[in-house]
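Changelog note: in this version the structure field was regenerated for every chain. One regenerated record is shown below for reference.
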Amino acid sequence: PPRSTLFPYTTLFRSALATPNRFVPLALTTFQNEAYLCTVFKTRIVAEMDQLIERGHFSEATTRFYAANIVLALEHLHAEGIVYRNLMPENVSVDIDGYVQLIDLHFAIKLDDPPARDFSGLAHYLSPEQVSGQGHSLPVDFWALGVLLYEMLTGSGPWITGDPNADSEVAIYNRISSHQPGGVPQIGRASCRERV
């Protein structure tokens, strides 16, 4: 993209990532050329959440701990007027002390912009308002958190069937819009179901 389209992201990174927060990596500097905006982060990443989920689903206590970390990260971004819009296991890293850090803010937007109406992120993490294109803001991050919690507890997303033919983006969008899970394992404990 031309340099002028990178300007909003430069300001976004400078405001949200220049404020120290345990759950959002500190941006040391940014630089850009005609095609890219690069950010140098101070991180101590040990693993990505998707790698941990691939080893097996998490216990309720582990899920609760990671969820609390993510809520604190989202609260930090939301306090800066930023909608993250990219919450998925691949963008949640675990640092050397076991705490999460949200990475990859390339879909993040400032709230003072008109409501976003685009598709951003993985299909099965999109909220119904994103799928319908009616405009979205902060709540989409908490919808994605619910999807992530489900995935942490079961090892699979709620809208995924496991059948590649039935898991096209259109089929997933239809299941999200109609609130019809894809037939993956149900969460066992009532306390877990209530949190998700």
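Spot check on this record: The helical segments are 3-16, 49-55, 60-79, 128-132, 139-154, 169-178, 190-195. The chain is about 40% helix and 15% strand.
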